[in-house]
Specification:
The complex is a heterodimer of chains A (179) and B (387). By secondary structure, chain A is an alpha+beta fold. Chain A contains 5 helices and 4 strands. In chain A, helix 3 packs antiparallel against helix 4. Chain B is mainly alpha-helical and 387 residues long. Chain B is built from 17 helices and no strands. The chains are: A alpha+beta (179), B mainly alpha (387).
């Protein structure tokens, strides 16, 4: 262990949303790939600027929906055709038109559950500990300050050089984050 | 606007083509009307219903946008307003239907009423029918007149009072629209089969109109995009795609709800409507509608990559345009006792002829104003966000 403390990354604090957007673009141009931005409000184009690409969440939701549709229909088919067939006004046991509303509901239910649970899983939530909160002023990220973090996992990461680079972007402050 | 000057010859040429083709088609219809008047009136009713759906749908979406706002509306507001200014033309084009009333609607014959309830006798008679036609067109013309007048005034003066006026009219306006369209749908289409009724019918027609108008304007946005780009961010295009998606779902919901209720009720007087529309070749058309009016556009419009590309989105909208025509054909034509979907040549010339005139009128209206609203504070906010 050459280092006493393990470093998670370097964090720069900005006062304006525009500065954060510019900084994120510059960091990407400088070749950094593992970076993340924190902002109290949504900023148009920021996710593209930090190199965010589409997630697998839509696929998870689609699978949830398909499972819900098949499951909902199968449940009704099983009840009305196999387990407890009843003659209702002379209709066929497999009276699919009347199965459609329930099938629709279970589709929406399962797709919505897949969306919420899938989102939590892909984000690694719930997460009782996250190193970014070691940054002393990080709580301002939910108020009026904008943060850009370059992570130590980045192949281009070097503690001193990265700090220099971030200072070059003229932030309010730069700090190291312990892991 | 320099792009407006570029656009001018393009619009003029399109209008000339529409007028010539529409004129030829209508001339063929007139010739057909001599030989086979009953078929002519049937074809004309079908064609007319389609184009009035587009025009009234434009009016409805304008009012919707005045009520709820949103960046998507400014992109297409001028197109919708131009569409809503064609209602006068459609009022004139209604005349042949008055002439053909006795051939189209069985209730015009006195003997049909013998076994009917007294309400049907009072409601379905030629005098009251014509009075209602006058009321519908009066209401629609007034709504479109004031909304367009105030919108033009807003453009010239930037007076924010106009915005409030348009919003204040749109609230009651959209209710009145829903009521008049419900009654018009009952009068013009449902009463072709006077023994059958459905309480969801009016709503179904409202959705058909909104969908016809929405897919029409999306196609126009694409056709104009070579010369003028009406949208400022892919997000606005995405919103138009999402609205199409909503309307596709609502169409499926209304169509299926009506079917499910009648299927569950299993009543002798209701079933023949569906029996007719699923007998013989009509079943194939019904399945085609389920697949291409719902399943395919539904799946495509789920994808962001479809909604954010104008050419791809317009391709889906074109599919929906064609399917709206097929849907109306499936709703209207089986009422005439035809045993399968075999379009008569006049079905095609009537919809093309009315369409030619309508598109020419639409383009004439479109040229009269800049293609995007000016001096609308809400729109300026949208532009500022897009930059």
């Amino acid at each position: 262990m050459s280092q006493q403390k393990k470093i998670y990354g370097v964090m720069a604090e900005f006062e304006e949303a525009g500065e954060l957007l510019v900084a994120a673009h510059k960091a990407r141009e400088a070749g950094f790939t593992r970076l993340d931005a924190y902002s109290p409000l949504p900023i148009e184009g920021l996710s593209e600027a930090v190199g965010f690409e589409s997630t697998r969440l839509p696929l998870i939701v689609l699978i949830g929906g398909i499972v819900g549709a098949i499951g909902g229909f199968a449940l009704q088919y099983y009840i009305h055709v196999i387990e407890y067939p009843q003659n209702i006004g002379g209709r066929p046991f497999n009276s699919w038109p009347s199965f459609v509303p329930i099938t629709f509901e279970t589709t929406v239910l399962c797709a919505a559950l897949a969306a919420v649970l899938g989102m939590l899983a892909l984000n690694g939530l719930p997460s009782p500990y996250h190193p970014v909160f070691n940054a002393p002023r990080f709580k301002l990220a939910s108020r009026h300050r904008f943060f850009l973090c370059i992570k130590a996992r980045d192949p281009k990461f070097d503690l001193e050089e990265t700090k220099e680079f971030l200072l070059g972007l003229e932030p309010h402050e730069v700090c190291e984050i312990e892991d | 606007m320099t792009s407006h000057e570029l656009l001018e010859p393009k619009l003029n040429r399109a209008r000339a083509i529409a007028l010539v083709l529409g004129g030829i088609a209508l001339a063929l219809c007139a010739a057909g009307a001599m030989a086979n008047p009953t078929q002519f009136y049937r074809s004309y009713l079908f064609g007319y219903l389609y184009w009035i759906s587009v025009a009234l749908g434009c009016l409805a979406i304008v009012m919707l946008h005045h009520l709820v706002g949103g960046g998507w509306g400014f992109v297409i507001r001028r197109l919708l307003e131009s569409g809503s200014r064609t209602i006068l033309l459609l009022a004139i084009l209604f005349v042949p239907l008055i002439l053909g009333m006795s051939r189209l609607y069985s209730w015009t014959q006195p003997h049909v009423h013998a076994e009917e309830s007294s309400f049907a006798k009072v409601y379905l008679n030629p005098t009251f029918f014509l009075a209602r036609v006058a009321i519908y067109f009066g209401v629609w013309l007034l709504l479109s007149f004031f909304l367009n007048k105030w919108s033009a005034q807003q453009d010239r003066t930037g007076d924010p009072a106009m915005l409030r006026k348009m919003g204040a009219l749109s609230g009651p306006g959209i209710l009145i629209y829903a009521l008049t369209v419900t009654f018009a749908a009952v009068d013009w289409v449902l009463s072709l089969e006077p023994h059958w009724f459905s309480t969801i019918y009016g709503l179904l027609f409202i959705i058909i109109q909104a969908l016809a108008a929405m897919s029409f304007v999306v196609v126009v946005v694409m056709l104009l995009s070579d010369t003028v780009q009406l949208y400022h961010s892919p997000g606005q295009l995405n919103d138009l795609g999402s609205l199409l998606f909503t309307l596709v779902m609502l169409w499926a919901y209304m169509s299926f709800a009506q079917y499910l209720i009648i299927w569950s009720g299993n009543l002798q007087e209701e079933i023949p409507w569906y029996a007719k529309r699923t007998a013989g070749g009509w079943a194939y058309l019904a399945v085609t509608l389920m697949v291409f009016h719902f399943a395919v556009p539904f799946t495509l419009l789920l994808l962001r990559s479809v909604k954010r590309r104008v050419k791809v989105l317009a391709a889906v909208a074109s599919l929906l345009l064609v399917m709206s025509v097929a849907d109306l054909y499936w709703l209207v034509v089986p009422a005439f006792g035809q045993s399968g979907p075999r379009p008569h040549w006049m079905d095609i010339t009537a919809i093309a002829g009315i369409g030619g005139l309508w598109i020419a009128a639409f383009l004439s209206q479109l040229k009269r104003q800049p293609l995007l609203p000016l001096h609308d504070p809400r729109f300026e906010g949208v532009l500022a966000n897009a930059e």
